[in-house]
Amino acid sequence: MNLIFLGAPGAGKGTASKKLSEIIGIPHISTGDIFRANISGGTELGRLAEQYISKGHLVPDDVTIGMVKARLSEPDCSKGFILDGFPRTLNQAEALDSFLTETGRKIDRVIDIVLSESTLVDRLAYRRVCIGCKLSYNLKSHNITDNLCPVCGSSLMMRDDDKPEVIAARLVAYHKDTEPLIDYYVRTRKLVRVNSEEKIADTFANILAALEIKGMKQ
Ligand code: AMP
Q1: Is the CB of 185 under 6 A from ligand 1?
Q2: CATH of 2-115+178-210 among 3.30.420.40, 3.30.70.120, 3.40.50.300, 3.40.50.150
Q3: Whose CA is nearest to atom 11 of ligand 1?
């Protein structure tokens, strides 16, 4: 199964797509995670991406498309993949379609995670990431008061791009560049919309239902 998760920053794409990847056993590919790993590793790609990410802007298409094509060419993607945060522009979506056609594949479903803007901003303000195991938490919904990871005990940090001034720029980029993809995928009849205003478990159950995945332990 080849899937795309769409949605504004903070909608819950990462949490849902990682969980789905564990359950159905196909790789989770987050362009944001790949960029962050390169930033931590001090690579040339990381240094370039950081200039855009720190301002809430999108990394240029040629860099991002090349990176995703390379990842999708790895052997583990032959059994399927879940894209989280890619495509984010029409140009990326068209490049992805051409690349998949060339390699004899296609997208099966696009899950658009829908959330109101006020909830998005609230969720991003309370999002923290573990510096050890990199898991992401919401301080409010996970009831965390000591700022420590409940799984590995390391400190939790706010992502630099979750600071209010950067969030505003990320939402502008989402509305301008990424929202038009909803129509693009409606036209291909592959889009399913899932409301994420509810509890994480309910959102996830709706995603499984939309994908007609039954009998999986959540
Ligand atoms: P995310 O973790 O998906 O929220 O991505 C974090 C940041 O990485 C975004 O705000 C962008 O600056 C950059 N980024 C991630 N995916 C893409 C993409 N498909 N195209 C361009 N920039 C991206």
Answers
A1: no
A2: 3.40.50.300
A3: 58
Task: Please report, in tens digits, the pLDDT of each residue of the chain (218 residues total).
Answer: 999 999 999 898 998 999 999 999 999 999 999 999 999 999 999 999 999 999 999 999 999 999 999 999 999 999 999 999 999 999 999 999 999 999 999 999 999 999 998 899 888 999 999 999 988 899 998 999 999 999 999 999 999 899 988 999 999 999 999 999 999 999 999 999 999 887 778 889 999 999 988 766 55
Locate 1 and state its tokens.
């199964």
Please pick, among 13, 18, 36, 128, the residue that the annotation labels catalytic: 13
Catalytic residue selected from 19, 55, 105, 159: 159
Residue keyed to tokens 């890619």: 86
Q: Which residues contact 35 (CB under 8 A, 6 or more apart)?
A: 45, 46, 49, 50, 53, 59
13 counts as catalytic: yes
Active-site residue, 170 included:
yes
| Contact of 149 with 132, CB cutoff 8 Å | yes
pTM assigned to the model = 0.91
